[in-house]
Give the backbone structure.
Amino acid sequence: MKKVGVLVASYGSREVAMVDAFARSRNYRVELYVADKQRNPFNVQRAAKHVVIPDLNVREICKFAEANRDSIDFGIIGPEKPIIEGVRDLVEKQTGIPLICPTKEYAIEESKVQQRLLFQEIVPEVNPRFKVFDPKDYKNTAEVKQAVESWVDELQDQAVVKPDKPTAGKGVGVWGDHFTTREELFEHFLSNYQHGTVIIEEKVKGEESSFQAFCDGKHLVPLPDTRDHKRAFDDDKGPNTGGMGSYKDKGDVLPFLSKADRQRELEVVEKIFGKWRSEAKDSSGLRGVPLYVAFMHTGKELKILENNSRPGDPEIINVLPILKEDFIDVCFRILEGNLTRIELEKSATVATYKVPPSYGGYAETFPNLVRKVEVGMPVDLSGAYGLSGKYGDNIRVYPASMEQRDGETYALKSRAVCVLGVGDDLETARNVSLEGINAVKGGALWSRTDIASKRHIEKSVKHMEELRRKR
Ligand code: GLY
């Protein structure tokens, strides 16, 4: 069997799902070289070499790649930070190892303004109304405040405040959720504006879908739509998080959308990709997942909330375990520029995350509860892993922000562990995911209970029906 060495830069469950897919290769003897945010117990067990780079610094990732250059055939990068910082450009130049992720030029996740301007040129109809506030354009706070006020007047308060850069300030703030008065809105604005440019957009209402596509530079191969659950608590309450869980129906289309909705998504992404390709000196820079689009279906025109330049976490976990092909072969085809299609099992999948006590605003919402719970206790994943005896490959347990220390596994600060259920329908997949999540013991971890629930889906279906009627 041919040996293949793969470099993986890993942040959480998204990359653990990749490691799992590689480790299950039937066609190759895979050696994994994992540059990890921490000693992730899943990765540590499967890696031939494992290194911890807490900030996923691109120079350190490059050093690790260089030290193992002779054994590594290619690399794949999941997290946004190194992609935005140009890991591909650096590693390919220094080591010659090809990476699967966009080059810095195509990592448009780096700038929300850049994204809006790009869409404005190619598909202006998907942009909500927006205005850019660049500190260079205003003399003082009073001047920018006046400009913000008059723009928010135009939007009749229905505003979303976004920092240009992914990590600046307090992040995205939405009228009605993060602020309900002009003072609060401006306070949120300033917390971002002091770090740089801010964009204020019209808030669009509707139902969200996550679109992802693999790209080999020449072809864009769409993956099925998934639905993320971004809010911390059941019924989509509480602050936004990285995603508490996600689902995918049996086919490519979500239960609350139509084939025509999906078709419209495809038209939009094809237009963006087509423009990129036609203007690129070297379109192989687009390799990876350059378009992971958060769409908002409004019942009228489709809108883009934002685009990311990497796979979604958890959304890619809904897809990788049901690939019909060997993931190594898929990666080779991406690198060769001949990825024209991807075959998936016709299964529904549901991913649920369990998170630590203070995650997602729980500490602010329930301060007394969080103070009482015991943290720093080990987490026991054995019950969840044990369910593979019952469900076989239809359950996957993917630790994320967890660390192996002194033979025990501990949850750190972010999403701790994701359990994926696979089934013939969403309900079966959800039950497997929930049983797995409930079998994770210790660490005072908690999860949403309504990921892909019948009630949640019916609500989305009804909402879309209402929105379409208003058209
Ligand atoms: N699920 C949201 C994200 O990956 O950004």
Notes: The chain is about 35% helix and 25% strand.
